[in-house]
Specification:
Layout lengths: L2 H16 L20 H19 L4 E2 L2 E2 L1 E4 L4 E4 L2 E3 L4 H22 L2 H5 L2 H17 L2 H9 L4 H27 L4 H10 L4 H21 L1 H7 L2 H4 L10 E4 L1 H4 L24 H4 L20 H13 L6 E4 L1 H6 L3 H6 L4 H22 L4 E7 L6 E2 L4 E12 L5 E8 L5 E3 L3 E4 L4 E11 L6 E11 L2 E14 L2
Antiparallel strand pairs: 1-2, 3-4, 4-5, 6-7, 8-10, 9-10, 10-14, 11-13, 11-15, 12-14, 15-16
Helix pairs in contact: 2-5, 3-17, 5-7, 5-9, 7-9
Amino acid sequence: MSERKQAAVGSDEKAVNSQVPNSLYEVRKKLHVRSITGAFTNWRWILVWVTQIIFYGTPWLVWNDRQAVLLHLTERKFYIFGWVFWPQDVFYLAILLIIAAYGLFFFTAVAGRLWCGYACPQTVYTEIFMWIEEKIEGDHNKRRKLADAPMSGNKLAKRMAKFGAWGLLSLWTGFTFVAYFSPLDELLRSAASFAFGGWELFWILFYGAFTFIFAGFMREQVCKYMCPYARFQGVMFDPDTLVITYDEERGEPRGNRKKGVEPRSVGRGDCVDCGICVQVCPTGIDIRKGLQYECIGCAACIDACDDVMDRMSYPRGLIRYSTENAVKMHWGMKDILAHVARPRTLIYGGILVAICLALLFGLATRSDLRVDIIRDRASLGQELSDGSIENVFRLQVMNMVEQKRTISIDVAGLEGIRIEGQTTIEMPPAGAESINVQVRAPVSAAAPGSHPIMFTIAVEGDDSVVVEEKSTFIMPR
């Protein structure tokens, strides 16, 4: 080739290369996931039904003539069936978050990403949205053809129907989410006249929009790029963690063959290389390449492979729940379960049980009455005309039950000490009251300085509820 031609070819290659964009991220290829049936798919749909019945149904439950579960931000009270929690009870929320964290550590160490595959909201709503999509647009092949086809009346009608169904479900999901923080009856009245408050409307649209986008369009991208759990799960896995595995020793070398053919007789493994395990994967991975961080443990590939094995008259379990050690050493389920109790799981499980017991003990021994006593800093102690010394205290009393109560207040600790004026408080159900209390003592009751006293706050008619709070009484010099 002449130098002129070589130069021309080189310039053409540079021109072509200059037109190829460099991207930091993988170009997404839209997945049209194939539907499958099987035991694990059934369990996944059972969890979809259970979680959504709980989520959508809980705001409609009634307890003591009010919403059973209501995290009422305006009143700053959390109602959970018979319990009423105040902002001062925030440590219970902290304990619940710790329990959730250790529960995630424990179950991940034992059985991998079960939460992701069966109960994560992203998985649940993606399953629901894909079911709607299949009912409107057809199976995975029809959906792929529809996506590749030019816009037409039929395509537009199906897309509008699908987006409309997604949109209604998303708005109802946002409405239900807000119903946990704002009374449902008020939201229903607002919906009837479309007169939502600003923040209520914002959160309905915000939560609904994210449901629509995440479950309808982003889908596996959320699991692969946005969810932090996919990134740090590796540090919680070990060779005895139960995960979805492909039995490479049994399956390779893969290849096509006729039904009923003994694979070893044609120099093949049990895998017929049908690719259905990839087609049913919601994140689009090939489990035959080994465990990958994108795998959410949904077991759709197990159901797909078992179905193919049944049709080929081969044993099930080419793809199965197993462990790295079990596959390597050919363990059965009995040996796998025997290795569940190991130092990591015992530590996680022990801490989890201890925290749960501590939470239950704290709730069981939680007082029905809460009292905070604050000294009036403006007057530490003053002498009155009758020769007595007066200190003023502010009492913050919280009634933790949903019934009216009469609260009596008494004080002791110095000779002749007494409360001047109001000694009882009428408490509303699940209410709080704040009063100033004048406490007086004879000047001869104690030397100048600070002296400990004890307030006793009791519920009239219920001797089991008594709260004692310490404070100090100042005798001026």
